[in-house]
Amino acid sequence: MSRKKGTGPMSLTNLSGVAEGADGDILDAWIETLLHFAYEGAGVKRGRRLKVVINPHGGTKKGAAVFKKTVEPIFRSAQCSLDVIHTTRGGHAYDIARTMALDYDAIVAVSGDGLIHEILNGFAHHEQPVKAFRIPLAPVPTGTGNALSLNLLGMEDGFDVSAAALNVVKGLPMNVDVFSLTQNGKRTISFMTQATGLLADLDIGTEHLRWMGEARFMYGLLRGVLQFKKCPVQLSYKAVELDKDRMFDNLQAQRFKAGNKNRAVPSSPPIPENEGNALPPLKYRPTDDDGWTILDDTFVYVFAGKGPYVGRDMMAFPVSLPDDGLIDILAQSASSRSDVLLSLGGAPKGEFYWNSSIHYIKANAYRIKPLAPKGSLAVDGEIFPFEEFQVEAHQGLATLLSPYGRYAAEFAPRPKRKATS
Ligand SMILES: Nc1ncnc2c1ncn2[C@@H]1O[C@H](COP(=O)(O)OP(=O)(O)OP(=O)(O)O)[C@@H](O)[C@H]1O
């Protein structure tokens, strides 16, 4: 078992040595002390009980083999007890999560983001939804889209299945907001993104190019910019923050706080909005307009979500925070092709955030009304009908395992303006 030396708080190392002439009891006591520091000393229970859900068909279809070769040996060495299920069809992970016993220390998804979406929706329909959402969820990235893993582990480790396995063994629970999306009276849990316009076409219009892997998204982006189709929607929201510099300062403050937290004393998770056994009720109705703002502009895309990375090529929501109870909304003005191209140039590091043709809003809720019969909508990467919908955030409802207690992405400050002579 080996893994490149990590820069994070966790790395996998095989240590061996000879204890010459040591008494067996003393050795046992030494081992026990070491394990105590490694686990209880870091606030982690030893030998976690894990529900493992593997999608053998995700990404390049290597999930089952990767689990067996790399992930399972790490879990076994850490004396975790495993209850492993391979999904046999779309929707299987939803059913597993909806009916599962709630006495696991974590649920592990050996998959991409699609299975995470299914599991969280399964929890929402569990007979004890709030308790189900308390079970920490941890991804092992074997899908095409592995944004959640990138957000938890960072760019360097986000696609490293050993790092993800270590997070399962030793990560600490981190509360995270999820969203309710309502459309035609139907409520869906979204944990990652809702996309309309160019960014939805990326997911929907490039399905036949799956063989390209991640390059498919860059191809779709360039194609979309060339076509320069407008996104026929009206965007309205219940805004909390509109100032990009203040959002950046708040991100820095929250990261500083998370960095100074003593991992040995995990903070007690915030009380969810709803202590009872039902999902939190919706706060906003589709007819509410008190305190709502309509953004008067024409867009190329409107993109909203949680978590900085939406893929390796795009840090869409650089100032997103796991449990601020807010949704980050990004809307690209249809000002000019060059503006769109310029802003996408800085997408991997989130630099487009500072571009003035990008609206960036933190809100409690938002609403999209189509202004034309045809268009695209993708929710957590899945195709949805292009019809009116509304989204609101539920603060800290779900739980993830995290090595850092915050998102791992690094986002740079506003670039200094070049002096003009
Ligand atoms: N055994 C199966 N056969 C076919 N599809 C499945 C199976 N198990 C799960 N699925 C479906 O596979 C989809 C993709 O899952 P996953 O999260 O692993 O990867 P992804 O990155 O989201 O997508 P993909 O890798 O397929 O592009 C899910 O929507 C799920 O419904």
Q: What would the average pLDDT be, to the nearest integer?
A: 89
The CATH class assignment of the largest domain is Mainly Beta
For the sheet with most strands, the description reads: 11 strands, antiparallel
Radius of gyration: 22 Å
Shape: globular
Q: How many distinct beta strands?
A: 17
Helix fraction bin: 25-40%
Low-confidence stretches: 264-268
- The CATH architecture name of the largest domain reads Sandwich
CATH topology of the largest domain: Tumour Suppressor Smad4
**How many alpha or pi helices?**
11
Number of domains: 2
Strand content: 25-35%
Helix/strand-derived class?
alpha+beta
Order of helices and strands: HEHEHEHHEHHEEEHHEHEEEEEHEEEE
Enumerate the distinct ligands.
adenosine-5'-triphosphate
Alpha-carbon distance between the two ends: 58 Å
Explain this structure to me?
This protein has two domains: 24-170, Probable inorganic polyphosphate/atp-NAD kinase, domain 1 (Rossmann fold), CATH 3.40.50; 181-264 and 286-393, Tumour Suppressor Smad4. Helices cover 29% and strands 26% of the residues. The protein is built from eleven helices and 17 strands. Helix 2 packs across helix 7 (161-170), helix 3 packs parallel to helix 4 (113-124) and helix 9 (215-227) packs antiparallel against helix 11. The longest helix has 16 residues, at 244-259. The radius of gyration is 22 Å and the shape is globular. Bound molecules: adenosine-5'-triphosphate (ATP). Adenosine-5'-triphosphate binds at residues 55-59, 87-92, 111-115, 118, 143-145, 381.
